[in-house]
Amino acid sequence: MTTLAAWGLRVFGVLMLVGALAFGATKAPDRPLQQLIARWALPPSDFIDLGGQLIHLRDQGPADDPLPIVLLHGTSASLHTWEGWVRELQKTRRVISFDLPGFGLTGPAEGGKFSGDYSEAADVGITVALLDHLKLSRVVLGGNSLGGEIAWQLAAAQPSRVAALILVDAGGYASAPQSIPFAFKLARLPLLGQLSHFVLPRSLVESSVRNVYGDPAQVSAEVVDRYFELALREGNRAALQQRFEQMRTGQDAGRIKTLNLPALILWGGRDRLIPPENGLAFARDIAGSRLVTFPALGHVPQEEDPAATLVPVQAFLQSLKP
Asked: What is the CATH superfamily name and number for domain 33-318?
């Protein structure tokens, strides 16, 4: 064996060892639901069987509220993203939040009518099924990012069920992101996406969360823990990859102009995932809507600064008639 060949083998061996050590250090197996409940499903969390689909939800505030508020989170988030708002709103309003299939403690779309379906239409269907289960005939529907798209699509499909919309950096229009969280990029790649089912560095999750905040310094260790641990919920990583495969961004944008209801549009001025120009488009296409921009906040303004973002929400809610 030549000296060059021997050197090459040694380098290869070192790379294999480094790779094995890196895999061991970042190996992150799925975590069963029961292992996550103690930290992330504190009261008043509940679990319901919705036609064969397990749903993690919280139903807070006065049960006799004539116009309950239902809040829908975005991609890779959970009902916890609304905690700052709910803490205040529940004092006078009934507020329902839940984890969409494929996210949080709800876990993958398994069993029931929408098994394996992560389309926007399936998310609308699940939300309608939840409203039916809770016997809610008419609600204020709010949503962030993906949740915002589900909200306006439900309002377009069943206008009698939605009294008003609160859209927070909502999806709906085709656009070019200025920056995409690395975890989303990874999930979109077939081979690397499969690898992410077994390997998930916490640092990757942290960088992805920091990417969607206007001020990354506001991302606490507990927030990173939440996103990281809920991403490990059994089946969620595979579900995220399936969701991206099924995603058809912007194909229903024409329906936004058909909306005819009170709408409050909130947007982070530093949103690099769904640009602020999309907020202007919603305000243009929904007659009579109001747009409020928060220059220093990012893609999840309700989570980054719940107190500031809740001010226009409270005023908007007070203007609505039951």
From this structure: Alpha/Beta hydrolase fold, catalytic domain (3.40.50.1820)
